[in-house]
Every structure is written in C-alpha cells, then in structure tokens.
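Long-time lurker. I teach an intro course on protein structure, and each term I like to show students one example going from raw sequence to a predicted 3D structure in token notation. This year I'd like something fresh instead of my usual example. Would anyone be willing to generate the tokens for the chain below so I can use it in lecture? Attribution to the forum is fine with me.
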Amino acid sequence: MQKNYFVTLLAALLVIGACSNKTTTSNSAKRQIKYRVQAGANKGGITENTNLKLVDGANINAFSGATRTGINVGTRAIIPLKRNAIETGLDYMYNNQTFTYSDATNGYEGTRKVNLSQIILPVTYSIPLFKKRLEGGLFQVKLGYLAQVNIYGIKSSNATLPKYSTKLFTSGFTVGISSTPIALGRGLKLGFYIDGYRGTQAYEDFYNRSEFETAGTSFMKYGIILEF
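-- Reply from a regular --
Happy to contribute to a lecture. Here you go:
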C-alpha cells in the first residue's frame, strides 16, 4: 500500500461523509456510547522493500518476502461527538512472514522467519453514512491514527544472513469501514469491518533500510463485529 493511495482515499471518504451529513440530522445528546468486539483475518505486518534497484549489486531475486494470512481480535468503544463519533479500543494482531535471501554478490543466502505479534491502539474519527436507514448509520467510515507495540519471534536458517534490527513501537495512518445491520435482539447487532493501515518501519536490514520509502509496516484486516 502506497502513501498516495491513502491520501486519495482519505479525501474521497471525507467528501462522502460531508455530503451524507448535509442530508441527515441527529440528536447527539440522546446518543450513547456503543461497545463492540470483533475478530477476523489479516494480511500484512512488516512491509519489505520491493525496489532492489536501490541495493548495490542486488539482482531482482536477491530478496523477497511472503506473508501468510494472520488473525486479529479487538474491542471498540464508539463515543458520540456531535453528528459523528470518536472510535477507539485495543487490538491484538498476529502475522507470520518469511524473508528469502538469494544474493551471491553480497554473500547472503537463506531464509528468515518472523512471527510478529502486535498490540494496537487505534483512535479514529467515525463518520456515519445513511443515517436515515439505520440509527448510527448503515455504514461508518473511519479515519485516524494508530500506535503499535511489536513483539517478535525471529528464526534464521543459517549464519549467512544480514544483520537486522527491530523497533518496539510503530505508528501510522489508518482508514476503514464498518457496519452492523443485523439486529439479534436484546440490543445486540452483528456486522463486519474492513481496516487498512500504513505506518513507520519495524524491521531493518541490508535490503530494508530506513532511507528506502517502501520499507515500513502495513496491513489489511477484516472480520465480524458483535455490537452491544
């Protein structure tokens, strides 16, 4: 995910939210804090450098990364703020990644497996859309920032791999959309969420240097919501 993609998406979502709020009204004084639990799958974690032209002597197959689908669980509190809301909570996300090195020129051969657990604190501005169809909006568009605490489990296949360093804290911009259209009774609702993120660098080595723009952290996660 590139930074310009998120800037474009942010602008589009703000326009949609502004247009929606012009055609609906709400009495924020009567709105209450809503709570959610959510769980699902995700793809991402460490975003590796894909532009190996920046690395002296490295061919296009010198380094590559592969990410398996991970899991995430979390909680949310949706706090009314005039017509919209502030959404915050706490997430746990797990990713399993494999970095493959095949660079005879620089003398690096082998694989490095990275198991990454992340504790995530998001704070987003939530814009409800289509409020006439459902109280609180049929959909909620979320824009904001999140911080991550990173816990690593790293195994290298041999000693001919480059040295590396990791960062405990990362952070960045997040966007998402959620909806809870299915009423289960007793105040419970069922729905879904989709969230994206792009942030600062968590892992650094010979091929993933801090001066390379593509290296960083990112994810796309999705799943189901239970609101109460």
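Some talking points for your students: Confidence is low (pLDDT under 50) at residues 1-29. The two ends are 33 Å apart (CA to CA).
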